[in-house]
User: What shape does this take?
Amino acid sequence: EDKVVQSPLSLVVHEGDTVTLNCSYEVTNFRSLLWYKQEKKAPTFLFMLTSSGIEKKSGRLSSILDKKELSSILNITATQTGDSAIYLCAAIQGAQKLVFGQGTRLTINP
Amino acid sequence: DAGVIQSPRHEVTEMGQEVTLRCKPISGHNSLFWYRQTMMRGLELLIYFNNNVPIDDSGMPEDRFSAKMPNASFSTLKIQPSEPRDSAVYFCASMGQMNTEAFFGQGTRLTVV
Assistant: This one.
């Protein structure tokens, strides 16, 4: 059965801290891994990772894929209260099925 | 493009009533997904279509749930009869053919009382 697991499920830190969110996957014919941020409404796209070891970066956010370990991490440096959200990881498998993890609920306290 | 469009945005209905949720994917996208999101279970894939054909409906909770995609620009998710435990936010998402991200609609918040 295709599965995506995220950890931790919940994380509370202070503004300015750096956080690392984890995602592991077991899917048939893996194609790509996606990261999304969800605040009050629909998830919004952050990154797509297809190749192992190549870091994607957007401002204070960065992500990398490790195909050997079947995992990915999302890093956020110098966190701000606006980074508080649920972060979702999803794997695209061969038949174009998109499977999500449970999400990590990140809370940034001022 | 206006993005993925879902309707209604909110639905409150009584137990036993039929509920129909609607989705218009982004033009040109060939995959469409229906998800249900709750605090307890997170984002669960109910069913997905590829080129209007249902590929995997193993996530549909039971026979009360059904989904159709009569053409490339429209899909429905129906619950009949609805139950209080069906209360959740239902998201539709669409994705293009090549390795691209999925785009989500704004969701339908369903409350069954």
Summary: Chain B has no helices and eleven strands. Chain B touches chain A through 23 residues (CB under 8 Å).
